[in-house]
Amino acid sequence: MAEELSGVTVVIIIALGILTFILLFIFAKRQIMRFALRSRRGPHLPIGHGAKKNLKKEIHRRVDLVPKIVYEPTVLNDNDSRYILPPGSQVAPFYYRLKACDDVKLLEKEITKQDPSLHRHPTDNLRAYLLNSLATPLNGVGHRLVQQFCDLYEHARHDPTEFGDEEYQMYSRILLKLLDAARLLKSYGPSRKLSPRGTPVRNKTQEKSRELFENKVREKREDSEINNKDNNETSV
Predict the structure, then answer these.
(1) From 89, 126, 163, 215, which residue has the greatest number of CB atoms within 10 Å?
(2) How far is CA 171 from CA 83, 94, 153, 196, in A?
(3) Confidence (pLDDT) at 145
(4) Is-contact 191 115, C-beta < 8 A?
(5) Which residues, in sequence order, are CB contacts of 153 under 8 Å at separation 6+?
(6) How many other C-beta atoms lie within 10 A of the C-beta of residue 145?
(7) Rounded distance, CA 65 to CA 67, Å?
(8) Where does residue 88 fall: left (phi above 0), alpha (psi -120 to 50 degrees), or beta otherwise?
(9) Where is this chain compositionally biased, Basic and acidic residues type (predicted)?
C-alpha cells in the first residue's frame, strides 16, 4: 500500500511539475509578445491587411512616398519688424544667408515659368538642375557662372564662415545673369534633356531601334551576297 501511494505521489508530483512548466511557458510567451508589441513602432497588423490586392498595392505605394515629401519654406519674411531697421544700423549676421536661400527660389520660378517641364524637387541637386536647364541659353559659356552661383549658395546655406553683404552682392550679380538666361528658355522652344556640358543626351530606345535596323539590313546584304555566289557557281 505504501509503495502504491508513493507511486501515485510521484505521478502527481510529475503532473504538477509539467503543469507548472506549461503555465510558466505561457506566461513568459505572453510577456514577450506584450513587450514586443510595445517596442514595435509599426501597427499591430500589416498595412492594408484584408484589403483587395489593388488597394493594398496603392496603399503601399503612397506609404513609400511619404519619405519623399519635402518642402523648402520661405525662411525670410520681408514684413518682419526685426529686419526693418533705421539707417546706419546693422542687420543680423544671418540675414544675408536667409536672403540667399530665398533668392534661389526666384530663379527656379523663372525657369519653371518659361518651361513648366523644368521643375526641381527639393531633393534634387541644384547644381545639376541649373546646368541641365540653362545649358541651352548659356550655350556652354555659363558653366563656370553656374558653378560660382552654386558655390556661393552652398556657402550661404552650409558653410560656417562669414557670409555678409559683400558675398551677397556677388551672389546677386550672378543671380541676375542667370535670370536673364532663364528668360531666354521660351525662345528655344520645348526643353531638351541636356547633359551638364550642353551636349544632348542620347535616347536609348532610338539607339536600340537603329541597331536592330542596321542588323537586319546587314543580314539581308549577307543573304543576297550568298545567293549571288550560289547562282554564279551554278551557272559556271
Answers:
(1) 163
(2) 20, 15, 8, 21
(3) 87
(4) yes
(5) 100, 101, 104, 126, 171
(6) 16
(7) 6
(8) left
(9) 204-236
